[in-house]
Write a structure and sequence with these properties.
heterodimer, A: mainly beta, six-stranded mixed β-sheet, three-stranded antiparallel β-sheet, 0% helix, globular, B: mainly beta, seven-stranded mixed β-sheet, four-stranded antiparallel β-sheet
Chain lengths: 109, 115
């Protein structure tokens, strides 16, 4: 049950796109299509942004998209807006357990 | 309104016990439910999950043998009994519904383990 690997930080200017990676192993990210992404603003509960690698919950902007290749999943945020500045966490099913990434702080410059 | 409301957190001495509760309202409770914690200033850590009927439970290695998850579907409530608490268990404990991903979260209840 090792944590997934995310870059500690990412940044972009308004209107730009940014990609956040999430690297695991064949026992989690690479082995199942159950990767999800969460946005967390300071002092708030996490919010589901992407589930099952590519699916977006109702109400989540289509500026957020997910993908996966091998053991690495990615979250793309397009058309960056000020309100996108937050911490982002990936998560994966890992066979009778779930694991989160360490989190990425996204800064909108 | 769809809501998960946690309670039961507090200050406890090392080696002590606490029972957390999470009451669901405005949503279908016929889903797997999980506890996820976040230590101060740190990231999210999955703790435990229980299936809809309550007959299958799963735990992180860090809490296995010390924590017990259970649910009472007649009360729309999930519990986390935490025994042999350690300083490293200090965290904000969130209750979350698993449906695709963890799609609904409560606001959390704080657990502090300190002498």
């Amino acid at each position: 049950q090792s944590a997934l690997t995310q870059p500690p930080s990412a940044s972009g200017s308004p209107g730009q796109s940014v990609i956040i990676s999430c690297t695991g192993t064949s026992n989690d990210v690479g082995g199942y299509n159950y990767v999800s992404w969460y946005q967390q603003h300071p002092g708030k509960a996490p919010k589901l942004m992407i589930y099952e690698v590519t699916k977006r919950p109702s109400g989540v902007s289509d500026r957020f998209s997910g993908s996966k290749s091998g053991n690495t999943a990615s979250l793309t945020v397009s058309g960056l807006q000020a309100e996108d500045e937050a911490d982002y966490y990936c998560s994966s099913y890992a066979g009778r357990s779930w694991v989160f990434g360490g989190g990425t702080k996204l800064t909108v410059l | 309104e769809v809501q998960l409301l946690e309670s039961g957190g507090g200050l406890v001495q090392p080696g002590g016990s606490l029972r957390l509760s999470c009451v669901a309202s405005g949503l279908t409770f016929k889903s797997a439910m999980s506890w996820v914690r976040q230590a101060p200033g740190k990231g999210l850590e999955w703790v435990s999950l229980i299936n809809p009927s309550g007959d299958s439970t799963y735990y992180a290695d860090s809490v296995k043998g010390r924590f017990t998850i259970s649910r009472d579907n007649s009360k729309n409530t999930v519990y986390l009994l935490m025994n042999s608490l350690r300083a490293e268990d200090t965290a904000l404990y969130y209750c979350a519904r698993l449906q695709g991903g963890f799609d609904i979260w409560g606001q959390g209840t704080m657990v502090t383990v300190s002498s």
